[in-house]
Fold these 2 entries.
Entry 1:
Amino acid sequence: MWKVLLVEDEAIVRRSIIGIIDWEAFGFRVVAEAEDGERALKEMERHRPDLVISDIVMPNLNGLELLRQARERDFDGVFIMLTAMNEFEYAQQALEYGATGYLLKLSMSPESLQTTLDKVSRQLTKRAQERSHTQLYTAYPKEWEAIMNGSLRESSVVVSESSAKQEPRDDAWGQVIICTALDGGEGFDAKLLDSWKLMEWHTPPLAHQYAALGMTSVFLWSSKPPRWLGGIPRPGQIAFAVSCLEKGTHASFTRDWQLTLRRLDASWYSGKPGWFRVIPGSKDALPSAFWRGESERLRQLGRSGPSGMMPLLQEAWTDMERDRISWYGVKTFALRALDIIADGRGEALAYHKSQVTRASSHAQCLRTMAAAVDSLLTLSLSRKGETDHPEVNRIMAYIQDHYDRNISVKAMAEMVQLDEKYLSGLFHKKTGESLIQYVQRIRVEKAKEALRFTEVPVNEIGELVGFLNPNYFYRTFKKWTHQTPSDYRRGD
């Protein structure tokens, strides 16, 4: 209910206004009365009303001065002024001071008062929604950070302006439905959830969403929980894992959200999408959020050579699955491991981190890490593994940046102003492979990345990485990988 303070110096007029309609039927309750502006200020401090209906001409402190002082005290409730016909200029002045409207006392009717209250109710509801939007959008990143840090504190989410001194209001967004999906950060939103027809609302909820680490959470705030219609999305309707807490509150928001996040662990390890129901206040044993062996394994990864990285990662994935580490704990470890493997190559690192973030299962995440190790180490060997000859280093860097162009020994020799035959022998001596072999290897590595992480047709990938002849691309790719490009993409 919206709270109302009625300010009028004549008691009989106050009684008449209070009795003219059923206030609660329109969502309002008269919580206090005052006979002048001075008393009204005290009642405003005590009750913090949403609406003040005030006469203009009153003893001690008139309505205009009451409005002015209320604004100076940062009171932002709605003011409706009561006026007589000969006080119309005062009413106009009140509008300039920030009043929402006015009512003529002599001609007030139930209909005119109801029309005014409808207008005020819409204004107050819109204001409450805007404040809630701001408060909640500020809170989500903080609550996410708390979960990621393993901090099981009480929720700091504030969803209304009600305080201990105020009565609960119907506009308070105290109830929340939380549904979280491992959708790669794309595809899941409030509209999709609504299309599944799982619940029926008394009034439309306040819908928000938050995405991070390849998951999307939808929050549906309301004053009353919906009526669940039963059932779950049909298999054809859902392409990823979704967990849903059917009834939560702002007071337990952080824990409730964490329950939906960790309920997705079942799908993470099985690799199967589906709908997972979360019981409010559940005390069931849940997987650990983070892996205690993470720091030591990362140190081992940093000390290992290129050939030792994948065995360490495979062992780590086995241990995390055994300990049922939460999916966001696995992704956190994977992202930190990529920092070590990439060793400062920002552009390549950003790409592989995005692939880890999009992973929807434990196995897929490991495959992504394997591809990242393969690609980043190849880049490391070609860029970081420089020779002691500046012209050879210059050619290697050029090939890395322009592998899709027409590259020949002749062109490279002209670029560094060396004899073509001399350059061929020099390049092989300094790198252990011919210049053409080096170009082929880099192009095949780029083709492997495109096959893994894009849906570009196979016959177009060869051209994208510098093979002008499709047959030559197939032969070269098979020579280096012992697979055709199509077999490689299928994982055969």
Entry 2:
Amino acid sequence: MAPPYYIVGLGNPGRRYALTRHNVGWWTVERIASTHLHAPFKEKALWAEARGTIKGREVVLIKPLTYMNRSGAIFSHLLVDRTWLPWHLVVVCDQVDLTPGNGRLRIGGGHAGHNGLKSIIQHLGSPDFVRYYVGVGRPPEGEDLADYVLSVPPREERERIEETVLRFVEHLPRLIEEEVESVMEVLNRRYY
């Protein structure tokens, strides 16, 4: 039997963070749950998960309930006694180097200064997993980066971010069935 396909949406717990740029990973897995799995999230010790199948494959959606910079702490509990392959783990997070409306699918690489990715790489002991970056853009000159990603984007910007999320959700069945590279052409195209 094939190992589950894990999709981890990064974000911070709590209502005050729900609509912020830093929580686009949570927006993504919540949309996958409602669109493809029709399953609710259930809380575990350090994360909330929703389970189901897409294209006959078991899919586990994860929202870490730790704060962003401790996102990797869940993996010592989540992947215990389970066989998994790097391309069966997709982490979805915000990326300030991409403008709103654009995303990037990538296999491996560094953490690009993202504390959630840094924590995951540290806990897994490897950077070898798939990432989907959702563009949120850079803050205006003089605005603190942390304040920017922890703020709610204006309506037009949020709509573009949501387009990027929906693009990933739409192409997720292909990502599960096909090679990662085959989906990059669509997801990595520049839209704005």
